[in-house]
Amino acid sequence: MSADLPIGNTPLVRLRRLPAGRTAAEIHVKCEWLNPGGSVKDRPAYFMIRDAAQRGLLADGRALLDSTSGNTGIALAQIGAAGGHRVTLCLPANASTVRQRLLRLLGAELILTDPLEGDDGARAVARRMAAEEPHRYVYLDQYSNPMNWRAHYEGTARELWEQTGGRITHFVACMGSSGTFTGVSRRLLELNPAVQRIAVQPDAAYHGIEGTKHYESTEVPPIFDATLVHRQVEVSTDEAVEMAHRLAREEGLPAGTSGGAAVAAALKVANGLPGGLVVAILPDNVIKSLASAAWEDARP
Predict the structure, then answer these.
(1) Is 289 one of the annotated active-site residues of the chain?
(2) How many CB atoms lie within 10 A of CB 240?
(3) Whole-angstrom distance, CA of residue 144 vs CA of residue 127
(4) Which of 119-123, 187-191, 205-209 is most confident?
């Protein structure tokens, strides 16, 4: 497979206007949309494909298979195309037209699943396909694959530690597959157990925060390690969308709704702190979602 895509080493940006007057702590965000595939998912996608190649699973030409809500699929399709590997993706049929077109542009075969069953339904279809035709597919399963969290343990966490000079006091991340939260938190626990690790979830089963899961009402990813959580913060869809708008207008950062949720949670955590350095992950930007009604009022 190709290792030429420049994945990782994304910038850490300090927020200036949003926290003003609310906290003495610094709030920084890591802009993961500057990965080549446009999201934080480039990191685990590369690790999962590299691991499959190293174990000889791709030597017979089988297609890479996984379920996705969008970003992981885009990352897999892009890295697969660069390495000459076929990619088949199961995703809910209500995934945005922009995402579906981009996936097809990158050469992925799409299996559209029942939108009412969401991500869990897409994963069930992928599992069934892998079980029925093991000679045809290499099932990566981002929700169970340890390379998901390992990518962040080895990469994202190291970058955060170096970029903050070891001054990070609070780490904030939304949870979908939980790879980012689990991998970064596990490494930070080793580097400095005093760093607070904050897990962010939607506040309801039915929500509009893309790429996140409400764990109380859905299948919890096997790679998730609940013992790493210092504190859980719930954020509503309205809060996430409003904060994403504010990030764009007040900080010049066009993050998606999951980034809006992470920053909304970071501000709650930082509120009233006498100091410290809070880091939130911005998993992607809003570009692939602008056709959604949530952004219709994106005017000055």
Answers:
(1) no
(2) 31
(3) 12
(4) 187-191
Report the alpha-carbon distance of residue 185 to residue 157 in Å, rounded: 8
Q: For the chain, which residues make up each domain, given as ranges?
A: 12-39+153-295, 42-139
Topology of domain 12-39+153-295, CATH: Rossmann fold (3.40.50)
Identify the three-state secondary structure at position 260.
helix
Instruction: Please state the rounded mean pLDDT for residues 121-137.
Output: 97
Residue 96: per-residue pLDDT: 86
Cα–Cα dist 32/75, whole Å: 12
- Residue 258 among the catalytic residues: yes
The CA distance from 130 to 134, in Å, is: 5
CA-to-CA separations, 96 to 37, 71, 91, in angstroms, rounded: 16, 11, 10
The catalytic position among 69, 178, 258, 289 is 258
Write phi, then psi, for 27 (nearest 5 degrees).
Answer: -120, 125
The catalytic position among 30, 39, 41, 177 is: 41
Q: What is the CATH topology of the domain spanning 42-139?
A: Rossmann fold (3.40.50)
Based on the number of CB atoms within 10 Å of its own CB, is 57 exposed (0-12), middle (13-18) or buried (19 or more)? Answer: middle
Average pLDDT, the chain: 94
